[in-house]
Automatic annotation (TrEMBL):
PANTHER family: FATTY ACID SYNTHASE, NONRIBOSOMAL PEPTIDE SYNTHETASE. InterPro entries: AMP-dep_synth/lig_dom. Residues 13-173 form the AMP-dependent synthetase/ligase domain. Gene3D superfamilies: 3.40.50.980, Luciferase, Domain 3 (2.30.38.10). GO terms for cellular component: cytosol. It holds the Pfam family AMP-binding. GO terms for biological process: amino acid activation for nonribosomal peptide biosynthetic process; secondary metabolite biosynthetic process. One of its GO terms (molecular function) is phosphopantetheine binding. This is AMP-binding protein.
Length: 174
């Protein structure tokens, strides 16, 4: 159920016919599910990048540019090492780690960029930011996808007011 919900959820970078998505993650990393099936179930083209290529930001850059990749999902640390030149048409989606403002400033200045959040147990991601803009600071994790909810609760599992520290809980139909 989680996977079908993931593919049916409207996101700014939902794979579509004529889009090319790069699969750069190991099958053991949950984001590979979206990379593979997000492209194939929507009629997009999937570029399976060899593991040896993914280890070199320069080799990865060359494959992304040569294959005219439209959508790339990366951790912020991996995206930080990747050159941006000739990747203006790539929509970058980051997740799995906190995203620094410096990365947003660098990548969002040349094209679309989004921040996704979701622990593995939620099947890839449960929230997505709006398109990020340079100079906007540390990006938010965005709004929950349809069927999901994000709650900040105290130790007694009571909602806390905005700005008060608490624990982030994910809820929903998944």
């Amino acid at each position: 159920h989680n996977i079908t919900q993931l593919f049916d959820s409207p996101t700014p970078f939902t794979a579509a016919p004529a889009q090319t998505v790069a699969q750069v993650h190991s099958y053991s990393f949950d984001i590979s599910v979206w990379e593979m099936w997000g492209a194939l179930l929507h009629g997009g083209r999937l570029v399976v990048v060899p593991e040896a290529v993914t280890r070199s930001p320069f080799d990865l850059h060359d494959v992304l540019a040569a294959e005219h990749v439209d959508v790339l999902m990366q951790t912020p640390s991996a995206a930080a090492a990747l050159p941006t030149q000739d990747l203006e048409s790539v929509t970058l989606v980051v997740g799995a780690e906190p995203c620094p403002a410096t990365l947003v400033d660098r990548w969002a200045a040349r094209g679309e960029m989004y921040n996704a959040y979701g622990p593995t147990e939620t099947t890839v991601y449960v929230s997505m930011s709006a398109a990020l803009t340079p100079g906007s600071g540390v990006p938010p994790i965005g709004a929950p996808l349809p069927g999901a909810a994000l709650l900040v609760l105290d130790q007694g599992l009571r909602p806390v007011p905005a700005g008060v520290v608490g624990e982030l809980y994910v809820a929903g139909a998944g």
